[in-house]
Amino acid sequence: MSAARLDHLRSSQNADGGWGYFPGKASWFEPTAYAVLALHGLPQDRQRIEKAAACLLSWQRPDGGFPAAARLPESSWVTALAVTVMTVMAHTGRERGRAVAWLLDQKGSEKAWFTRIASRMGLLDPGRPIDVTGWPWLQGTSSWVEPTAQALVALKIAGVAHARVAEGEAQLLGVRCRDGGWNYGSPRALQIDLPSYAETTAVALLGLQGVDRKRIA
Questions:
Q1: Which site from 28, 44, 55, 172 is most exposed, i.e. has the minimal number of CB atoms within 10 Å?
Q2: What pLDDT, on a 0 to 100 scale, did the predictor assign at position 146?
């Protein structure tokens, strides 16, 4: 990363320790987590990222998850980023354990009983496998490629051995588009094949690290 970009990142940090999506805007979890990961390992930024990490940890909710912003009431997919940040920063205490537990408890709604029944009766074409599930953006909603991949990255680097990891991998492989890449969630809609996108394909491959290449080729 160039010095100018690093300087811009440093100058954009908010007083609470976090970063917004744009300079001068309120702190959100996602840009703060990525800023911490970008600056991690630079000795001159140690205090800066420790302040940012403290800001993020203060957002942990009673259920163990993290919201996308401090003012939001619900834990969400960013909990995966929280686990990644804590692992990278060697913060392996109770906070990370609670976040991992929350993450393992989350499942996409496509595996709900009414979805399975409607699919088997031919009343619904979910456009994706429903025998396995990934992770949703928000609790109680369908799983999508990016939150599933982020959850897999977090659990793998944290060394978590759990059946949900294999299930998440299977779900990602099951929603691969006909052209070989990944769309945002389903490979088809209304019985029409959907195209894949470079950014979602890259994120999916990050989540599939460690999977036998023969299953991806």
A1: 44
A2: 97
